[in-house]
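#struct-help
A.M.: can someone run this one for me? Single chain, 82 residues.
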Amino acid sequence: MPTFIDVHEGFVGVDKAGLQAAHDADLAIEAEEGVHFEKAWLDPVSGKAFCLSTGPSKEAIQRVHERAGHGTLEVYEVPVEV
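D.P.: on it. Structure tokens below:
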């Protein structure tokens, strides 16, 4: 299954609980698209959030995020890992 990293904007001032709520929203519907969100990170100063996931396609990742309320167009497949 391909691995993806995506980037979100607009999380300025969000705390750990807010990031967890966004992540939980993804987890609640991820199976409907065959996606699994592994981990999420946040920089509340820049407002950037990052997610690591696996799934069948970039579009599947985007659909879950959009439905969960925090869509993004920045989804990158990561085919090489060490």
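A.M.: thanks! The chain has a mean pLDDT of 97.
D.P.: also worth noting: The chain has one domain: 3-77.
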